[in-house]
Structure formats: C-alpha cells, structure tokens
Amino acid sequence: MNVTHLYCSSCAKKYEANRLYNLCECGKPLLVAYNLQECAKQLKKESLNQREPTLWRYREVLPLEDDRNRVTLGEGFTPLVNAKRLGMKYGYSNLYIKDESLNPTQSFKARGMTMAVSMAKELGVKKVAVPSAGNAAGALSAYAALAGMEAHIFVPDDTPKACIVECKALGAHVTLVDGLITDCGKIVAERKEAEGWFDVSTLKEPYRIEGKKTMGYELAEQMNWDLPDVILYPTGGGTGLIGMWKAFDEMEEMGWIGSKRPRMVSVQSDGCAPIVKAFHGGLEHGTTIENAHTVASGLRVPAAVGDFIMLDILRKSDGTAVAVSDEELVKGAEEIGAIEGIFAAPEGGALLAALEKLRDAGEVRSDERIVLFNTGGGIKYLEAFE
C-alpha cells in the first residue's frame, strides 16, 4: 500500500519494505514508514464512519499489501466507556476506560497479532514462535490457527491457567518454562533458526506495533479528534504505548490532529518496575529487574527491548511512570468491576490505583480528560482474584 521503507528506532538505518526482519543490525526495534501525504489523499477522517468497525478501517496506514492475506477475527474498534460513576467516586468529571477486553482472545494483543500474522502470511512464513506472559500467546495461537500456520508458544510455568488452556485448545505447541518471559525469549532465539520459526516477540518484528497503534487512531476518532489530557497505560513490553505515540505523529502529519499530545503515564507493578525506576532515576534505558514478580502477568517483563523509546515518550509528553502493589491493582480491578461493570484484568486495575497516587500527588486535575486503557479481561486471571 503506502509503505516506503522500514527504519531503526535507534540508529535510523533504513530497510527495504516487504521483507522479513526482526531487529535492526544494531539490535534495536524496526518501525514502518509511510508516504503519509498519499495516505491523506486516500483516507479521509470524515468518511471513517462508513467503514467496517474494526482496526482495518485504517487500512491505508497499515502495512499489508494484499488484502487476500488479511488474517482477521474482527479485532479493534473497542468501546471508549465514559466511566461516570467511577469518576464521581474519585472526583473526576471526564474519566474514560478504553476497554480492550472486548477484542478477540479478550485482550489488546489481538491487534498486534492480526497484523503480525497477516504480514507473516504475505511474506511466506509457515511457522511462528513467541515468548509470552499469557495474552500474546493466546492471540498468536488464534491467528496462526486461522492462517494455517504452526504456532510455538513459550510461557512461564506459572502463567494463568486460562491462557495455557486457550493456547492448547487453539492447536498451538505449548512449552512451559521454569522462569520469566525473558527466559522464554532466550529459548526462542536459540532455536528459531534450526526449527524454521519466525520470531514474533514484542518489538522484535516490526508489525505487531502497527496493529497496536490503531488504539491511538480509534481514541482520536472516538474523542472527535481532540486527544485526552492524560493516558494511563499498563506497561510490560510497551508496544501499545509506543504504537499510540506513533499514531499521533502520523495523524498530525496527515492533518487530522494538531500538535497537542496527552501526558503519557506508564503503570507497572512494584514487583517489576524497570521503566518506573529508570524514569525517576533519569536513565535512558530500563534497569533489568531480578526476581520479577506480580500477579499481573502482563506486567512481569523484567527488561524490554523498546525501553528507551518508552522513556523518551514519557519525557516528551511531560508524563510520568507509577508503580503500584499487587494488592492495589487487584483492588483497582475489583472497583472497576463493581462500579462500571467491566471485569478488568489486573493490569487494568493497576491504572485506577496509579490514578489515585497521581491525584494525591496533585499531578492530575479533576476536570482533565483522562483515559485508562484496560488491556484485557479479568476472566483470564481467576487465580489473581482468589
């Protein structure tokens, strides 16, 4: 479609489009570049309401060349809920929840995997592999099944049981690993060449982020092209945070929005908070967390390959990073459920706990427009709520 090339997020080296890549030669993530002037001619924001209610409504700013390779389960265009009762309790007049649990496979990971698997199909891939904390594994299993690909899943042995059952039911080859997601990633890296797997790890291929960025497009559309003041996002690998920021820049270049940006807030568990520690320590890269632990398995990422991009976004947006305890994030999920009827994942619950901390510190005003991204469904995490 409108892809011009790929480029490194660190050294800026350019790569030819429509090729299989993992990381840049320098070891950093690759991103997709578009001819956005051409995109703006083809895609008009005024006509979006006539398009399908999925992320594919933004087709011209997505990397797939041939629609026959589209592997889709109807992902995207999730509701933006005006959380009036929750806002009333905490003193906010404009509090919203973007509820990603209504995606296929019950999480925002469906956005990334529809794009990664569609591009893998277009580029001739037959076998895919991923290290995961749970939800990415389920999403890859589903989309690989639909595409007729082999899926090889590596997850920590204490991954929520629902995620493991889901992957097996979807026909994936599942390996439980005594360790963390980083240990799972090492196994994929060591075996992928010999096994013929394409590695779709977070930010280690350039297309999952293109699916995730559609959260930014949707948010702008649902808020009538006036971005919120504050976005709180639960951060593990950080693809969603980085993807939304990329979407904001693309929309500005197409003339859809102005230069205003939300203050981006990265939320982590205090048992695994590499971005929080790096941000407040003035570092450019995250610190690797030893013995990382949290019941919010999506936040249990002790080191992220895109940490330097996240930290740059937080600082450019005048945002911040907040860590909360497991007790606080579970309580937050239960409050969202009891007040708004959304059974949020623990990662989503962490946002409410973080918002309380920001309020108490005077870092958000009661009249600001605030969006919490609930990235998944609590039904996958029953052990956390026991």
Structural overview:
With 386 residues, the chain is α/β, with parallel strands linked by helices. It has a domain at 80-107 and 208-385: Rossmann fold, CATH 3.40.50. 38% of the residues lie in helices and 16% in strands. It contains 14 helices and 13 strands. The chain has helices at residues 36-42, 84-90, 109-122, 135-147, 161-169, 181-195, 208-212, 214-222, 239-253, 274-280, 307-316, 326-340, 346-360, 382-385, and strands at residues 3-8, 14-15, 30-34, 80-82, 95-99, 127-131, 150-156, 173-177, 198-199, 230-234, 263-269, 320-324, 370-374. The strands form three sheets. It has a six-stranded mixed β-sheet with strand order 4-5-13-10-11-12, sandwiched between helices. Strands 8-7-6-9 form a four-stranded parallel β-sheet, with helices on both faces. A three-stranded antiparallel β-sheet has the order 2-1-3, with no helix packed on it. The mean pLDDT is 95.
Descriptive labels:
alpha/beta, Rossmann fold, six-stranded mixed beta sheet, 13 strands
CATH class category of the domain at 80-107 and 208-385: Alpha Beta
- State the helicity in percent bands: 25-40%
CATH fold-level label of the domain at 80-107 and 208-385: Rossmann fold
- The whole-angstrom Rg is 19 Å
User: How are strands sequenced across the largest beta sheet?
Assistant: 4-5-13-10-11-12
State the CATH architecture of the domain at 80-107 and 208-385. Answer: 3-Layer(aba) Sandwich
Which parts are unreliable, with pLDDT below 50 for 5 consecutive residues or more?
Answer: none
**How many strands in all?**
13
